[in-house]
């Protein structure tokens, strides 16, 4: 018993046999569909249009009968259209950054907040966290879910919580070193920047007390994970979530670092063909869709995440029975279509790290004379520098060739000075699509 | 008897050269000779300076990328034909010149900086042909 308490935050749920999870999901689905139908006119209309009644939903096998919700629906219904509880029962809102359009506002009851924070607590325990730990949270606090989510999870686990929020790297480092932080929570790009800043101040990876990092809120690659692990001397865990569904903690990685366990007692996941909406069998790549089973205030049913990934029911050595989702290649709206080819920025990042570059880069896409152009700027590494133009040009060509091999598109590669690409303290801006300016 | 050349990565952006040269000036580093290779995206500033180690330290502290390259400094008579003869003997000896630049000194000779693929052999060929190589001390005394 003592042993399991250390490994899982909520062992009964996290290691529940699959048949039991599915039975639980079915029971909860029937209830939540009724709750939404009765309280959310917007979704009731969608169901009526599709000719589906709550009585038609007997369990998860009937999930496919329900209509999808998209981000466009959330914008249409802004701000109260999808609210399923009286405002008096709500205690909090969180909101998306609004970078891809109008903000989305999500509402929480106290019970919703507790569930969300428990999900984050599961992630922290999976990363080796306990009440002995000092958890430094440098996700942004405020409307963004990163800070509040991990902060709440850290409290639930009983860690000493450092509510740093993002930014002020000098102070982050001072608190990290003076208060012996053991767990770091932030975006991967900020973790990389903290690693770089520690090295600049003469700290070696073994000089800090960190043992684990919980990083998410933006796409990152396996290569970037290894690079962060090396620079901070930690094990880096991925965490996934989205404001619409609750925030970070929808799924999280265990020590296997092989896919993120979805908190299936609360969230029902499907993979669909993004073009046809057809449900795909386990193991096939497609768009991830979530149904929140326990949320009272903002219970989204069949919400299309635009994240492209694969689910796996394969048994995990950590003992958790929750289905695992592969790291999304990127949100489908992060995907660029360049000269007709689908390009995820993460593919370019993979090549850069493989070729010995850092994680600071900028991708610029433009259209010149009706043809798309791809420019990749990356900071030169001191060990790559040469006094001859010939050798530097060879480096640029080698990198361009490697990117071409990966994508099938010829990029223009530009070596730029160290530190010349703006560092991010939150979600990194790595892509500028200038084509949008012309439209 | 190679001379140490300081090479600096210079991104093409406004104020880049100002920053580099100001840093060296503030550190009291004297620039004896320079050349700038430029491409569409960046330049490589090549300098012969009075104190290479100090210069590198200052640059690196300020996040600039630099390296030290051994180059040959050759004394040439300051009159027509001297440079042509030096380049000819190297060519005849099969030496590939990556780049070169020259400066005139208060001495009765000009100085040519040569970056070749094989310093030892180039040096031998030049000495065999009665050219004189200039040391870092010579340059510092100019």
Helix and strand layout, with pairings?
The complex is a heterodimer of chains A (439) and B (142).
Chain A: H1 2-7, H2 11-14, H3 18-39, H4 41-50, H5 71-76, E1 90-95, E2 105-109, H6 110-126, E3 134-137, H7 146-157, E4 160-163, H8 169-178, E5 183-186, H9 188-200, E6 212-216, H10 222-232, E7 235-242, E8 247-253, E9 260-262, E10 267-272, E11 286-292, E12 303-309, E13 311-312, E14 324-325, E15 336-338, E16 341-343, H11 345-354, E17 361-368, E18 371-379, H12 389-407, E19 412-416, E20 431-433, H13 435-438
Parallel strand pairs in A: 3-4, 3-5, 5-6, 6-7, 17-20, 18-19
Antiparallel strand pairs in A: 1-2, 7-8, 8-9, 9-14, 10-11, 11-12, 13-14, 15-16, 17-18
Helix pairs in contact in A: 3-4, 6-7, 9-10, 10-11, 11-12
Chain B: E1 3-11, H1 16-26, E2 31-38, E3 42-49, H2 52-61, E4 66-77, H3 82-92, E5 97-104, E6 109-116, H4 119-128, E7 132-133, H5 136-141
Description of the structure:
The complex is a heterodimer of chains A (about 450) and B (about 140). Mean pLDDT of chain A is about 90; it is low at about 1-5. Chain A is about 35% helix and about 25% strand. With about 450 residues, chain A is an alpha/beta fold. In chain A, the strands form five sheets. Chain A has a nine-stranded mixed β-sheet with strand order 4-3-5-6-7-8-9-14-13. In chain A, strands 19-18-17-20 form a four-stranded mixed β-sheet. In chain A, strands 10-11-12 form a three-stranded antiparallel β-sheet. In chain A, a hairpin with a 2-residue loop joins β17 and β18 (about 370-380). Chain A folds into two domains: about 1-330, Rossmann fold; about 335-439, ANL, C-terminal domain (GMP Synthetase, Chain A, domain 3). In chain A, α3 (about 20-40) packs across α4, α6 (about 110-125) crosses α7 (about 145-155) and α11 packs across α12 (about 390-405). Chain B is globular. In chain B, about 30% of the residues are buried. Classes of the chains: A alpha/beta (about 450), B alpha+beta (about 140).
